[in-house]
UniProtKB/TrEMBL annotation:
The gene is aspS. This is Aspartate--tRNA ligase. Homodimer. Its EC number is 6.1.1.12. The keyword ATP-binding applies. It comes from the Bacteria. It holds the Pfam family tRNA_anti-codon. ATP binds at R221, D222, E223, E488, G540, V541, D542, R543. It comes from Mordavella massiliensis. GO terms for biological process: aspartyl-tRNA aminoacylation.
Length: 592
């Protein structure tokens, strides 16, 4: 067939009985039954095959081989008397004539059992990732990742996009995260930066006459790990379209992604076009997050005007949000547990009350509400109160109350039966993001997201803000996020391709024309030669695969992930280097 085998370990069937074959793979397990009878499981990339030892000579050979050694087995295929219907090769077994060791495992004890590697400590799994990847369950996710990327490439090519790779060594650029810097040996004191994203390059491609660009782009950001974010590097389906609006981008994404999700996901249902569109302000008000999970039918209601003055101190002078849940029969113990989890995730307390089978309000903060009988009709109308309902409340500054309510929506949707359609992929667009915000550290006006986004209203709205006719915080950006099942897959935008509008947008955050030219020289200059309107997006490949595999940790879908501290403990990176290397780079490391 190929290499040194005639068949793979997942290929042999009953019709191969009587044939002389050679299989190769890892010796996964040996079960001895007597002095001359043993059952050996051989595993390769494609599956497993049972090999039956029936001679003392071959038993001696097998006993001298440690598990996970690679071996070659040549022998006769025969039908099994006790069929194992759990595996594709369960109807046959191989009776060996010869067994050869191809690569000896010199360790009698393994760090963990290969088939149960996912139960091992994560640091141990990452240190011995090559063993972890031998586990078919782990390996299959990497195989699936490859299939998904192949499908994405095919779909983008069919839509007329040209795959173009952009540089890895480039200039440092202020794009929201810390750069990874690379010293330039031939230019002492100067540094390259690994790209946080191909943002400037893809926009320059649009100015270069390329109509539709994409790539499976590596991105490098020196930021902390999360469950859905790998430190160091990640990959995204980066795309950009010339002479395009957000509608053009939406049309491509809505055509490309649902078939991929339906084909490769653990669920076979995905939102079809058009995806639901939710303005940012509405998302925060109704879902408590800019990453709404539309599988959950719960929404947030504002009850500030009704409950602020009921005599409950945590509500006094605060914004108050409520999440009503119909037909909810959770016990008080279960409610208290959910409220505790909400507090851990949001950093703010959650409160509650419920209605009994007769519609009476009780439990939690009910006594404060019942003391104000005149507000109960209004509260009933606002929340749609009916018998057997639970209402969870949050209070604080507006952003804090929204965030807590958003966590409550997620927790209650998962806990209360009938409020979450778990087995589907629910996409939505979050649109109309604010262009600017007040920075938490600086206390001054800053870009809210991508500084290269076109402000809705263009130059006119920027001039109004400059003249004080409108608040800059009210300016919206022609920007959009793609969200699936409560996970942000990507941010995208119609780009600011006009140099004059770009300069004016940066002036509002105290960056003058010369500074803009200095920070983005190539892109700015390219735009002065006549750039087309263009728009794009870049869904995260790692996050997509994580969703498709229904994994909680993104590290499960990356072949060689770093740990939470951005360390590759298998390779020992980051590591110290030799003094001569530092001298070549004109670097002196000081003790700290």
């Amino acid at each position: 067939m190929f290499q040194s085998r005639t068949h793979t370990c997942g290929e042999l069937r009953k019709e191969h009985a009587g044939q002389q074959v050679t299989i190769v793979g890892w010796m996964e397990n040996v079960r001895e039954v007597g002095s001359s009878l043993a059952f050996v499981v051989v595993r390769d990339f494609y599956g497993i095959t049972q090999v039956v030892i029936e001679t003392e000579e071959l038993m001696a050979v097998v006993k001298d081989i440690n598990k996970e050694s690679t071996i070659s087995v040549t022998g006769l295929v025969r039908e099994r008397s006790n069929v194992n219907y759990k595996i594709p090769t369960g109807e046959i077994e191989v009776i060996p004539g010869t067994i050869r060791v191809l690569g000896r495992c010199t360790h009698q004890e393994l760090p963990f059992e290969i088939r149960h590697s996912r139960n091992a400590d994560e640091s141990l799994r990452l240190r011995y990732r090559y063993l972890d990847l031998r586990n078919p369950e782990v390996q299959q996710k990497i195989v699936l990742r490859s299939q998904i990327i192949s499908a994405l490439r095919s779909a983008m090519t069919e839509h007329g996009f040209l795959e173009i790779t952009t540089p890895i060594l480039t200039a440092s650029s202020p794009e929201g995260a810390r750069d990874y810097l690379v010293p330039a040996r031939k230019h002492p004191g100067k540094f390259y930066a690994l790209p946080q994203a191909p943002q400037q390059f893809k926009q320059i491609l649009m100015a270069s006459g390329i109509d539709r660009y994409f790539q499976i782009a590596p991105c490098f950001r020196d930021e902390d790990a999360r469950g859905d974010r790998s430190p160091g590097e990640f990959y995204q389906l980066d795309m950009e379209m010339a002479f395009a609006s957000k509608e053009d981008v939406f049309a491509v994404i809505e055509d490309v992604l649902p078939p991929v999700f339906e084909t490769y996901g653990v669920y076979d249902r995905a939102s079809g076009a058009p995806f639901v569109r939710i303005p940012y302000a509405q998302a925060m008000e109704e879902y408590g997050t800019d990453k709404p999970d539309l599988r959950i039918d719960l929404k947030v209601a504002d009850v500030t005007d009704l409950l602020q003055e009921i005599g409950f101190d945590p509500f006094r002078d605060q914004s108050i949000k409520a999440v009503p849940v119909s037909d909810c029969h959770l016990t008080r113990k279960a409610i208290d547990k959910i409220c505790a989890e909400i507090e851990v995730q949001s950093g703010s307390k959650a409160y509650w009350f419920k209605t009994d089978e007769n519609g009476a309000i009780n439990g939690g903060i009910a006594k404060f509400i019942n003391a104000q009988e005149d507000l109960i009709p209004s509260l009933t109308e606002r929340l749609g109160l009916q018998p057997s309902m639970l209402v969870v409340l949050s209070a604080g500054k507006l952003a804090d109350a929204q965030k807590t309510a958003g966590v409550a929506v997620k927790k209650l949707g998962e806990a209360c039966e009938g409020h979450m359609d778990k087995e589907k992929y629910a996409f939505c667009w979050v649109v109309d993001f604010p262009m600017y915000e007040i920075g938490e550290e600086s206390g001054e006006l800053e870009f809210c997201h991508n500084p290269f986004s076109m402000p809705s209203g263009g130059m006119e709205v920027l001039l109004k803000a400059e003249r004080g006719e409108i608040d800059p915080l009210d300016i919206l950006a022609d920007q959009y996020d793609l969200v699936c099942n409560g996970v942000e897959l990507s941010s995208g935008a119609v780009r600011n391709h006009d140099p004059e509008i770009m300069i004016k947008a940066f002036e509002l955050v105290r960056l003058g024309e010369e500074e803009v030219k200095a920070k983005f020289p190539a892109m700015y200059t390219a735009f002065t030669y006549g750039a087309p309107p263009h728009a794009g997006i870049a869904p995260g490949v790692d996050r997509m695969v994580m969703l498709l595999c229904a994994e909680e940790s993104i590290r499960e879908v990356i072949a060689f992930p770093m740990n939470k501290n951005a360390q590759d403990i298998m390779m020992g990176a980051p590591s110290e280097v030799e003094e001569r290397q530092l001298k070549e780079l004109h670097i002196d490391v000081k003790d700290r």
